[in-house]
Each structure stands twice: as structure tokens, then as C-alpha cells.
## 1
Amino acid sequence: MTISHIPAAIQSRGSALIVGGGIVGLASAYYLAKDGWKVTVLDRDDFTGNCSYGNAGMIVPSHFTPLAAPGVVTQGIKWLFDSRSPFYMKPSLSRSMISWGLKFMGHANEKHVTRSAPYILALNNLSSDLYAGLASDLGNDFGLTRRGILMLCKTEKTWEEEIHLAERATDLGLKVDVLDRKQVQALEPDVELDVFGATHFLSDAHLYPPALMAALQKQLRQLGVALVSHAEVTGFVRIGDKIARVTTADEEYTADTIVLTGGAWLDQLANKAGITIPMMAGKGYSFMTSAFEGKLRHPALLLEARVAITPMGGQVRIGGTMELASINHRINRKRVEGIVNAIPQYYAGYELPMPDEKSVWHGFRPCSPDGLPYLGRAKSISNLIIAGGMGMMGLSLGPAAGKIVSELAHEERTSADIQSFDPERFH
Ligand SMILES: Cc1cc2nc3c(=O)[nH]c(=O)nc-3n(C[C@H](O)[C@H](O)[C@H](O)COP(=O)(O)OP(=O)(O)OC[C@H]3O[C@@H](n4cnc5c(N)ncnc54)[C@H](O)[C@@H]3O)c2cc1C
């Protein structure tokens, strides 16, 4: 076994070792390297297969409500018995799952939503601004498009609920248009919509995630960041209140600051460092289609079906399903069918063929039980920063998380209030 000492950069603030090469890890590397840190990123895979690639590519200040919200539990129980449903929590006797489920239920209330919304929104707004900076620095090779997101409602009931949410969003400072059927159809003149109405969140945006990840990696290499593939972190050696060494099968690494990301595996990583972080993987699926032939102008959420549809590079990506369960790589064809069947219910005439199994991507959203990120310094380990648990909005929040990681590393005031995101809040 060799020991790699990560040398400090010349004008350096020090050296940083990041575990996990998803959007949160790469964005952290970007802001740290920009600030003069000597950065190494370790990933168990090859930086191409994580959740940050196949997602729906939506940048969503509109998502200021955490997953743990009123009504989710009742709806989830109803959906338990529908094999094509978009939300599913696998019943299990595992202690960690029961404990996660109880915490989730304890937070699915109005008080939690009202308290958390401004902090989630502030983080999302920060990220949205940072995406503008990334687009100019990386040459917007990743299709960042600011056309908002349509929330399509099939029923009057959903539309009324959305109007209520739109009022709340407006109070929080977001720009939202409420559209009747004719108005939303006018925004999508080349397809026939079969909906009651919509809301249009104008502050939202979309991009092409694989292009973003590739552009970031290219930039990181230019900044001198080492991206190390097939380096699964298996343990941490602590000396006093610090992590002295990070262990993989082949090597040990030392650095001044350690940043744990790791997506849906953050709990396992943190556990190795002696920190408890409740996490559940929320499996989702996506696939690409050329069926819309460039006719779709806006990304949209098909609200009743919980399906996302996003124009990307001439094609369209369709994604959905939240299966909360222990990590497994099975593709549940019934749930993919649920996604496929939803499309013609909103876009008349778009009966799509079932994609074959090879064309269906799956990924694991890193879900905390209160629906809030984990972002902050560890209390008992002085050189450890934790960033993850961003659930359904990790792509959106990635740059803000990365920026804040760099500020924490400098012991600076953070650009957003992260008190509610304390990684050890469930201790
Ligand atoms: C269908 C679907 C649609 C989505 N749509 C959107 C959307 O439109 N907008 C949005 O904001 N979000 C969306 N998301 C969520 C978003 O994709 C995730 O929240 C985000 O990608 C998580 O990023 P991450 O960096 O935390 O984790 P990941 O991208 O999963 O990266 C974690 C990395 O850590 C590595 N790792 C784990 N353990 C170890 C170890 N021991 N050693 C070394 N490396 C390790 C893994 O190999 C992986 O590369 C969607 C998710 C799904 C499934």
C-alpha cells in the first residue's frame, strides 16, 4: 500500500480530498480549486454513472417544499398497492428503514414545510445564480436554458392546489404565472395538450446533465484537480479530532480537509467515520425519446403522474418514480410502464413504445428523512465537511452546496444560512 500526500498548491489554502464524483463532489472541487486549494476527488466508479447523469435536468427554485410534506404519507399508502404508481416505500423490517420512516412521518407536517421553505429556496436561488457563472466559465456547453418549468394539471382539483402553491411561491419572491388550458396551449403550439391548466415557474431552468458533468470534469482537469476513478473509500484513520488518512483498497490519502459527498451512500461513508446520517435511496428511472421531434419547448412536470419531461439536445428525457428502498439495481418494468402511460394523458397522441431495458437509466436520489440537505462541518471531526442528502433536487442545489463547502473550508461566512442543514441533526 502506498500513501499519497496531496501537496498543497503554491499559493494554496491547503489540500482537500473529496469523496464522491457526483454533482455535489465536482461542484465542491470546482469552487475549492478556484480558491487555490489543491484538490483530489475519489470515486468508486468512473465519474460517468451516478445519479447526477440521468436525472431530469431541472433547476428548481420552484421546489421549496421538502419531500416530507403534509399529504405525502396518506398518498404514499394509497400508492403502495398500485404497481405502476410513482411513489413507493418498500415495507421492511430493517431497523434503519423503520427509523427513517418514523422520522419522515414526524416531519410530514405544515409546520416543518413553513419553517424549511425559505432556507431551501435561498439555497436554490444561490445555485441558480451560480449556474449562470458556471455557464459563462464553462462556455455553457451544457444547454442551460431559462424558460421556466410548466406544472401541468389534468384536473381542476390539482390546478387549484397549484394556484395555492403559486401564491405561496409569489409571497416567497418567485415569479409564477397561472395559466388556463388555452394559455398553456399557446406556450406549446406544436403539441396538443390534454390538461385543465398549469402554473409556470419562470425562475426555473433546465440543462443537459451529462454535458454539465463532462464540462465540469474538463474544467477541473484544467484547474489541476486530480479525478481518481475506481477508488472506493473503505475507511478513515482518525488521530485526535482529525481524519489523518482516508483508505481505499490500493492507497491511503492524506489532506488538510476532507469532504464527504457520496450521494445515496453518504450514510455508509459517514458511518465509517463514526457519524450517523439517516439516508434512504429513492430509486428513479429515465429514458430518452426522439418522439417529440424537437416540438416540445418547455420542460414540464405532469403533476398527477409525478413524471418529468425535459427537452435535451434535440431529444426529450422522460423520468419519474420514487421507490424508497435499500439500494438494488432491479428495473421495475411496471413502474417504467406507469411513466410511459402517463405521457399521452398530457400530450395527446404521444403513445410511446416501452423502452427496452438497456435504454432505461436508473439512479438513486439521496433522501434525508426531513427532506433537507446535509451540509456543514462535522462537530466531532475538525477537518471534515459533509455535503449531500439533496434528494429530488441535488442537481439544482449542487453548485450552492459546492460553493458553501469551499466557504466552510475557509472558515468563512456562508452565502446561505445552513443552520437547518446540520449533518448531525439526527444524533
Ligand atoms: C429520475 C431522477 C430525476 C431527477 N431529476 C432531478 C432534477 O430534475 N433536478 C434536480 O435537481 N435533481 C434531480 N434528481 C436528483 C439528483 O439527480 C440527485 O439529487 C443528485 O444527482 C445527487 O448528487 P450527489 O452528488 O449527491 O450524488 P451522486 O450523483 O449519486 O454521486 C455520488 C458519487 O459518490 C460515489 N461514491 C459512493 N460511495 C463511495 C465510496 N465509498 N468511495 C468513493 N466514491 C463513492 C458514487 O460512485 C457516486 O459517483 C433526479 C433524480 C432521479 C433519480
## 2
Amino acid sequence: MKNIISTLIQQELRRQQLELELIASENYVSLDVLNAYANVFTNKYSEGYPWKRYYWWQDWVDRMELLTQYRALAIFDLVDEYSSEKEERFVDSSFSIKELIDFVGQASPVWWVNVQPLSWSPANLAVYLWLLEPGDTILWMDLNAGGHLSHGFKLNASGIFYKAVFYWVNRQTHLIDREQVEQMALEHKPKIIVAWYSAYPRRLDWSRFAQIADKIKQKYWYKPYLMADIAHIAWLIAWGELDSPFPWFDIVTTTTHKTLRGPRGALIYFRRELEKDINRWVFPGIQWGPHEHIVLAKAVAFGEILKDNKVWWKKYVKQVLKNAQTLANTLIDRWWKIITNGTDNHLVLMDVAWSFPELGLDWKVAENTLEKIWISINKNSIPFDTNPPLRPSWIRLGSPALTTRWFASEEFMQIWDIIDTALKNYNNSKVLNDLKQQVLLLAQKFPLPYEFNK
Ligand SMILES: Cc1ncc(COP(=O)(O)O)c(C=O)c1O
């Protein structure tokens, strides 16, 4: 009898190996990160935090979690003089847990990080439970302008328990309308303002949000908290060449599984001066026993970013950017409409409905067509779309996953050629079949780093 579990894994692996992944929020972990998931920390209950656990025998859990925190702070350059040699002390039993806590604290005097959240959405909730009372107001970007479903949408706890108000982008430029953010903030007096999104291809001026918070303080005598959700752009900030929210914001949250190429999970960074105690709202506020085996896999992923002074990471990030820009430029050359006419990051929003109205395309036709040729993309709501939300005009494409497979600009140009031809011939099964063969050949040329039984 076939082993059912191994069949399931092999079939999913086969799918991942053969398709071209352009969903902007997906990526592939390295073999080291993948192997790191399977470790014996999974056997241990460790409610609490280093030196403050509910059960005994936590010495190695504490050391491991502190190492993960140290690396998590280091990837965003929040520790003074990170060096991998200094990490030796986490496995040196002549250093006590208290000494290690002090060491991380001294290395990062301004910021602290909770590495336990199982995912971003619960981490998000922990922040609100920490800082707000039910019914308090939060200011987010509207879902239809590039925000995320967990940003105050009625289906999510954030929209059920808190009053959500939204800002938009400018109708002509599709860039954040700073004046409107300020106007909304002054009108609604939010306790938290959230910046960064799921579908915004341009840079953000973080300092502008700090100015808005100051204006509220002048007018109403309180300062709203500023929270950055950098789930999509954490990789660019870790690169260190794009503006960082850390100098301006109070709380920064991110997923670990998108561009950071780690295991599924999240991080909450917060200024120590705010430490009313966010930690208490992660545990016991929203979750119980931490998944310490995943915390360890986070340390492995962060170690890959920090390796050799980020040399490898910078090479990867530069290529992600180059590939996204190649995508945007090639599509523009083929007369497709691209929101904001380009991108500063890894994602490109492409108008499939109105670039060539005579084709009768929308996201559904586009998604089905690309699925037939083994290319994976996702639909996206986008500002001022005249199509209804369930049939939006746009699709979102991203370059991180294929760049992990070391597709370079040349291959990306070929992919955009394939997409262009497929969408313009979506009724022609012969053309689609030829394109599928091209896709499969490309995918096999750049295999995933996992063991694959054909
Ligand atoms: C900006 C942003 N925040 C949060 C999330 C949700 O993260 P998670 O799936 O870890 O809850 C996403 C995922 O799509 C996202 O794009």
C-alpha cells in the first residue's frame, strides 16, 4: 500500500516544483529552515518567557528563544554591533539566563521583540488588546485601496471589536493621500494609526505619520500609537537601504514566512518605553504554549539573513527588486496598465480588465488561464475599481519566490512574454498548451532545493 502521507507531500512538492509562483506573499524556505521545523522543542510546554516560565526544565528553551530574539533584533539593525561570535554565549552554560537577558537588553536598549506569535493576525490582536479598549478607534488603509482583510474588515476580530476608520489613495496617482490621512486622523482621533499594506507598490514616508501623530497631540493632548505592518516589505527594510519605520514608529509587526523566508509565524517589535506589557497579551492574552520548534526555525531563517554581514541577503534582495522592475517594464512595453506605472518593491499590480477591454478579461479569466499553464497569481481589489469586489479588474504579481529559485531578469522577461501571450489568447488551447510546455521547462531548469521523488 502506498504511504498516504508521503504521497500527499510528494504531490504538493511536485506542484510547487512545476509551477511558477508569482503570488507576492509566498516564498520557499531553504532546506535548513525546512529541516529546522522538525526538532524536539516541539515536545516541550514552555508557557511564559525566558526566566519566567510556568514549567521547569526550560534552560535550553530559554537560551534558544533569547538567541532568536537577538537575531530578530539584529536583522533590522536594532542591536549594537551584531556578531555571530557573540552568539556562542547562548550555548555556554557559564552564562546564566539572566545574564543572557541582560546581554540582549544591552545590545538593543530601545527595542524589544516578541518572537512567539503563531501568525500575524493574532499578533495584531495582541497589540490591540494591549493598547486599546473595545470600541476604540483605529485608522487603517481601506481594503479596496491596498489594505488587508485583517486591517479592520468586519469579518476579522479587528473590525468586530474596534471602530475602524480608513484612509485612501489619491484617485489620479494611486499614492497614499497624505492630506486625507491627516484629515481622517484629526477628525476621528484614532488611538492607533496603522501603516503599510498588502498591495502598495511604492515607498512610504514614515516620518509623515509621525508628524500627524504630533499634530493630534497639539490639538487633543494625546498621541496616537503608530504601528507599521511590514509583513510585505520586511525584506527591504532588513536590506537596510530602504527607509525604516523603526525611528518613527512605536510598534512594528511582521510575518516571518513571506519575504523573510522563514517558517510561518510573526514578530512584534515594540519600544521598551511602552512596555506596559505586550508580552502578557501574547501569552496568556491570545495564545498558550508557544511553538518553540517554530521559534527555532525563525532563528535559522534570521541566521541566513545575517550571514556574512548580509552579503548573500543583499544579493537576493537586489535581484528580487530587479525582477519586479523587469516585470513592470515589460508589461508596460506590451501596453498593460500597471498601477503607479511601476514598482519600488516586489509587487506589481496589473490591470487585466481595462488594458485591453476588447479581450473581455477580468481576474477570474486571468487566474484560470494562468492556472492552465501552471503560473500562480492572485486577484486583488484596487482603488476605484469599477468592477465589483468579487470580480476585480486587477491581479497582483510578485517576484520573491522565483528569485529564491534564482530566476534572473532574462527568465522573468520570458515569463512576462508567456503571460502576455496567454492572456491575449486565453481561448486558444493550442497556444496555451505550448506555453505550458515552456513553463514546465523553465521550472525544471531551476529546481527547488528539496528532495523530489519523480
Ligand atoms: C500586510 C499583511 N499583514 C498581515 C497579513 C496576514 O498574515 P498572517 O497570514 O500571518 O495572519 C498579510 C497576509 O497576507 C498581509 O499581507
